[in-house]
């Protein structure tokens, strides 16, 4: 099995399934600490956004203000769908973005946003001590630190 590219209007997802031709090149995109756990997952995805909006009237494509927002929304739904289907999806910013663009052959006008690993939940005993220590609920910022009435508050 190789890599699959799903291209929607403003998004391209390049997918590699474990054991396929693209698995090792995709894994090499991740930093070392991500490689350590992501090699045990089933699929790696490179999420790219399209930085320009294509036009149907033959005019040149226009810069898209919201391409990263659009791709982030798509990734959010991908994570929810994975959960609904019995899988877990884990987003990663710890990747080599230039290498990612090279490996997936991102054309001009596409920006690599992040990588995603998808797999089944593993037993904690399969993790190293360092990985196990990270498996605790994250602390969340209070809502008041990120949501404002009208204007940002001075820090
Ligand atoms: C911008 C960003 C980059 C991240 N990069 C990584 C990463 O490279 N490796 C990793 O294991 N987790 C990374 N994470 C954390 C996981 O994606 C995290 O599990 C996810 O944000 C779920 O958060 P929660 O544990 O608070 O629910 C990153 C999170 C964010 C927001």
Description:
The protein has one domain (about 5-55, about 65-125): NADH Oxidase, CATH 3.40.109. It is of the alpha+beta class and about 160 residues long. A 5-stranded antiparallel sheet has the order 1-2-3-7-6, sandwiched between helices. The chain has a two-stranded antiparallel ribbon with strand order 4-5. The relative contact order is 0.18. The chain has 5 helices and 7 strands. The chain is globular, with a radius of gyration of 18 Å. Bound molecules: flavin mononucleotide (FMN). The site of flavin mononucleotide has 7 residues, from strand 6.
Topology-level CATH name: NADH Oxidase
Task: Give the bound compounds.
Answer: flavin mononucleotide
- Give the strand content: 25-35%
Backbone shape: globular
- Average residue-wise pLDDT: 92
Task: Provide the CATH architecture.
Answer: 3-Layer(aba) Sandwich
Write the topology of this structure.
Elements lengths: L2 E5 L3 E7 L5 H5 L4 H7 L4 E8 L1 E2 L8 E2 L3 H18 L3 E5 L4 H8 L5 E10 L9 H6 L21
Antiparallel strand pairs: 1-2, 2-3, 3-7, 4-5, 6-7
What is this structure, in a nutshell?
With 155 residues, the protein is of the alpha+beta class. It has five helices and seven strands. The chain has helices at 23-27, 32-38, 67-84, 97-104, 129-134, and strands at 3-7, 11-17, 43-50, 52-53, 62-63, 88-92, 110-119.
List its salient traits.
single chain; 155 residues; alpha+beta; NADH Oxidase; 5-stranded antiparallel β-sheet; two-stranded antiparallel sheet; 5 helices; 7 strands; 28% helix; globular; binds flavin mononucleotide
